[in-house]
Design goal:
Largest sheet: 6 strands, mixed
Protein name: Putative lipid kinase
CATH topology of the largest domain: Tumour Suppressor Smad4
Shape: globular
Radius of gyration: 19 Å
Bound molecules: adenosine-5'-triphosphate
Number of strands: 20
Helix content: 25-40%
Keywords: ATP-binding, Kinase, Lipid biosynthesis, Lipid metabolism, Magnesium, Metal-binding, Nucleotide-binding, Phospholipid biosynthesis, Phospholipid metabolism, Transferase
Number of domains: 2
Cofactor: Mg(2+)
Pfam families: DAGK_cat, YegS_C
Number of helices: 9
Order of helices and strands: EHEHEHEHHEEEEHHHEEEEEEHEEEEEE
Distance between the termini: 22 Å
InterPro entries: ATP-NAD_kinase_N (IPR017438), Diacylglycerol/lipid_kinase (IPR005218), Diacylglycerol_kinase_cat_dom (IPR001206), Lipid_Phosphate_FormReg (IPR050187), NAD/diacylglycerol_kinase_sf (IPR016064), YegS/DAGK_C (IPR045540)
CATH architecture of the largest domain: Sandwich
CATH class of the largest domain: Mainly Beta
Amino acid sequence: MAEGMRACIIVNPTAGRRRRAPLARFIAALRAGGASVQVLATRHAGHAEELARQVMRDGTTDCIIAAGGDGTIAEVAQAIAGTPQRMGIFPAGSANVLARELAIPFAPETAARLILSGAGTTIWPGVVEDAGRPRLFVQMAGIGFDACVVHWLPALLKRMVGRTAYVLTMLGAALRYRFTTLDVRVDGNAYRAHGVVVSKGRLYGGRFVICPHGMQHEAGFRVIMLETAGVLATLRMGCALLLGRVAHMRDVRIVTGRCVDVHAATPVPVQVDGDVLGMTPVRIRDAGRPLRLAVGRDA
Ligand SMILES: Nc1ncnc2c1ncn2[C@@H]1O[C@H](COP(=O)(O)OP(=O)(O)OP(=O)(O)O)[C@@H](O)[C@H]1O
């Protein structure tokens, strides 16, 4: 298919290690496959959403492709979700969790072939209020320690060493973070925890399995709660994550729901798709707006 496909790539030039060669190969492969390709580069955070809205208004594009990591994908999705517009993904971020979740190829030529093939799937993003404005996310939101790592992550370190920057920052944060009890409500049911991840998918931080079954293709989330406070519990959770054993930990509870509220007596940080959001209290809910992807296959 795709003879004559009109593709528009929205690229975040600051995502990942900022390598240009893979994107150039991706564009060349799309063109070789018969697509016409327009490329728009973002200039600031939030710009990908503006560009996607503008492209949709123009109405001249069959497929809007987000080239970046989960943050860029989420911004493009913010404009597209709930409309018939198809969205492609070229993984060019640091962790690329959604791309791994959906088995989207990283090799530029294979990624282009998949988009040109007409493959498709639908995912159901989540949403979180950001200063009174709903902000979409595609993979997960974190509250407490993991969000603190994102808040404290030095941008330069991330650019230089990619995902390793998270590990280094996490080790420092483990010593400095003050654990606070989080009051969590999932669809009205009350829990207490010291760290919460609200996840659409199975994966976290790259290829690490945080829960056995994701919910990308349906509304709702897996809510992963660490019930023990402290550095040791957090490091144990980190090790379990590396080994894919989080769901087996005795002090981890995993429940399913569509609306999650988190409060803390002392506000703690929140992150969505690896980007800083703000502080608690926070409400995370199903966006109610499906996203049509031009990649992957329906589960
Ligand atoms: N031109 C830009 N300058 C500065 N920030 C930008 C620009 N374009 C986009 N951004 C912001 O950069 C954030 C991070 O981008 P993105 O998530 O795509 O890359 P990443 O963090 O390297 O990858 P991952 O999320 O997979 O780890 C986005 O959420 C977006 O708000």
